[in-house]
Every structure is written in C-alpha cells, then in structure tokens.
Amino acid sequence: MDKTFEEDDNMKNRTYIPREKPSPFECPKEFCFFWCEKNSSFAPGLYTNLEEAMQAAKIVHESFCSCSFGICLRNPLRQGERDRYEPHEPNLDAAGLPHFYFISNPARLNQRKKKLYQQYFKDKEKQ
Fold first, then answer.
1. Origin, by domain of life (predicted)?
2. pLDDT (tens digit, 9 = 90+) per residue, 55-67?
3. Could you tell me whether strands 64-65 and 35-36 are parallel, antiparallel, or unpaired per DSSP bridges?
4. Interatomic CA distance for residues 79 and 71, integer angstroms
C-alpha cells in the first residue's frame, strides 16, 4: 500500500474553532473519510460485502491518507492536483462541527447547504 500522507508531529494537538474557516490547504485528518488513524482497521480495495472487507482488514500502524482516487491537494508531502476531502460525518458530529466545515468552497454544495455554509462563516465575520 502506497502511503501518500503520514501523520507528523506538526499535525498533533490541532484545535478547530467553530465558525472560523480552516485553511483549505490543511488536511483535516480524522474529519476526512479517507483518513486511517493509527490502531484502527483498514481494508484497501473494494469488497462484495462487509464480511469480506472485515476479513481483509489489517491494523493500521501509522496514520495515513487512504484515498485511492489520487493524491489530495491537502497532502503536505506530495501535493496533488485535486481536493479529495470527503466529510467524515460521525467525527464532525462528535467534535460539534458542521459537515461542511472543511469544505473550502461552497460551489458544489446544494442550495440549502450552500446557504447554511455562507451563514455559518458569515456570522463569524460579524462578531
């Protein structure tokens, strides 16, 4: 497995401030669907069912980006051509962040979410 992005010491202990827009070039790690956290399980590839994937899963020894669609623009080690970020909703919910928090541009959001995005970050600018 080609590890395109491993965690480094500069990424630890980051905090995110609600309503403060994060950098579009920073990897959101555990808030991205593709992030594999150390000591979690990972099964690369596609499987016909969950049981098959669970049998193929291995323990992750070092955190890394598992995106198989290409290198992400947010990768600080090997900058890719596209932003491959996909929200990891359960982790965003647990942190109290909206699902669109790390989305750098609302252009691809549906109209309802686009309004929520603009209002969410606009309120911060008014304070």
1. Bacteria
2. 999 999 999 999 9
3. antiparallel
4. 7
